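## Example pair
The file below holds two records. Each record gives the amino-acid sequence first, followed by its structure token line.
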Amino acid sequence: MVAATYRALVTPDHREPPARFAAALNSLRGPRLRPEVHLTEVPGPGRIAPWSAALEGEVVVGGLEVATGRFVVLHDPAGQETWQGDFRVVTLVRSSLEPEMAADPLLGEVAWSWVVDSIAEAGLSVAALGGTVTRSASNSFGALRETPDALDLELRASWTPTDTNLHDHLRLWADIMALAGGLPPLPEGVTALASRRGGLR
């Protein structure tokens, strides 16, 4: 599908965004993503950087949501030392896991390899790449005891792009979200995990 189109490049308080930020948003309009990936524009975070924009995503297979995520673009015209630049891409991916996958001691390394390998295969030049992989288990009791136990994966990754053309970064995140949902990988050499919520196995 075509990435969500940003409705306006002027903020509600009528500030006109810097040209570099406007160019970055325009670059998100072009990529065609996997048909299972659906995007929605949402407000960007307001306190991390002077300028921000965000998309929420979901991966739907057979009518079932198998993964969700968020793609955020931050821009500080003055730059930030920790970013090593004036832009930052911040991503989040969440999915549910089969019990045997949640118990795999290498789960973190496998999930993080999706990010590293996908960036390399896309030929992207990034700086200050970092992130976390979290697995969590939820058990229900009392009035909620009939609720199935949940085993979840959360992958957070952020990096600094070297220019304002972000369409490959958006596609990369969407593909990682699909992998987390259990869909077969599109890039060579990336391993998909099985999803509890109907993802392809």
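Second record, same layout:
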Amino acid sequence: MSFLILTGIWSCGNNADPSSWSSEKLDKWFEKGEWLNGWKVSPAVETNRRSFAVSYFKNMERWDKAFEFLKNNDRSALEVKRYDIDGDNVYATISEYLTKNEEDARYEAHRKYIDIQYVIKGQEVIGLAPLADKMGTLEEYDPARDIEFLTVKNGMNLKANPGRFFIFFPEDAHCPGMKDGENSTVRKIVVKVKTD
């Protein structure tokens, strides 16, 4: 007979806390992809797997709703607007825009929400850097909009297209919407998952 003390979703007897998982166990769980709930798009290899696993098991219901929304909706037919999936806990925005030149784009970071960013149509470049590599502030953090703009010292540029999606955590500074070659129109969905 096992005795389990539950705190939130963690239990002492089943090693459910991914912060203590080995890299091999973490990779196996991530690559199995059951957490995608049947959505057939691949996560970017740059995803912080441990941060994602910890957040997923802490707020599984929110993540499941996010991925179910991505799977069950025709993203190319959705109107450009906000969609409440679970009130302020999980919501999505559809946007269309012309990609920017790199010098006109700004790094941003969030504190209350994690972003799932997916380019539905078109392609762009997204910059990514650890928030720890912040050099300066362009705009102070605005709690109402959950955003700050900043400069970083070691950003890397990643190609975003309909073949994969990105997850950005509060420790990730990111710079979306940059052109990939020529300036072009992009249709994108960003699903916001509340952290607490």
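Notes on the second record: The two ends are 33 Å apart (CA to CA). The mean pLDDT is 92.
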